[in-house]
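Q: Please design a sequence for this.
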């Protein structure tokens, strides 16, 4: 099992990157993991789509490597962050425009978690789920939302990381089991 981890924040010590690292720890022994570095992906511009930028091509390769992709989304003004949406715009483009609409996202399995203020990233998690489904990803129904308190925002650290790690452990186990179940179903019921 191979899981690609993506923090939706480019900030070095973001809460979502911290959440992602907890998820990576939770996946230890359950799956092989990689953290996607997408910090140099350019703004999407269809005029520059072909040939693909090297940064875009490298990200596509990582998506294609993975059985599952686990996203960790912040919430900016009750929305998915623009840079994360930009990454997904690139990844949703056809791998071979002459051969059809299949992209690096098509048919992949996805999980969503998020850390934000009082909303626990509920708005951005909901938007991200809709976007991923539109991009033909299969989205795991169990999500984790973490509320970040004002004192945590000042310290840049979670005050109760053990409780959050427990949530990540449960989501990791569930996500991996769900992917295995979905793969078994598709093998038993080929189109």
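A: Design:
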């Amino acid at each position: 099992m191979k899981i690609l981890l993506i923090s939706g924040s480019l900030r070095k010590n973001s809460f979502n990157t911290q959440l992602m690292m907890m998820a990576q720890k939770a996946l230890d022994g359950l799956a092989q993991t990689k953290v996607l570095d997408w910090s140099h992906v350019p703004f999407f511009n269809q005029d520059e789509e072909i040939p693909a930028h090297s940064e875009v091509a490298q990200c596509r390769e990582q998506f294609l490597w993975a059985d599952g992709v686990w996203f960790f989304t912040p919430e900016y003004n009750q929305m998915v962050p623009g840079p994360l949406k930009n990454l997904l715009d690139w990844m949703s483009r056809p791998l071979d425009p002459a051969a059809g609409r299949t992209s690096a996202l098509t048919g992949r399995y996805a999980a969503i978690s998020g850390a934000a203020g009082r909303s626990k990233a509920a708005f951005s998690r909901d938007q991200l789920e809709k976007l991923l489904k539109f991009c033909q990803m299969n989205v795991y129904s169990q999500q984790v939302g973490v509320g970040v308190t004002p004192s945590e925002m000042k310290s840049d650290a979670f005050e109760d990381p053990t409780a959050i790690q427990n949530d990540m452990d449960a989501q990791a186990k569930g996500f991996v089991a769900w992917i295995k179940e979905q793969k078994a179903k598709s093998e038993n019921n080929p189109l």
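Q: Thanks. Anything notable?
A: The chain is about 45% helix and 15% strand. The longest strand covers residues 109-116.
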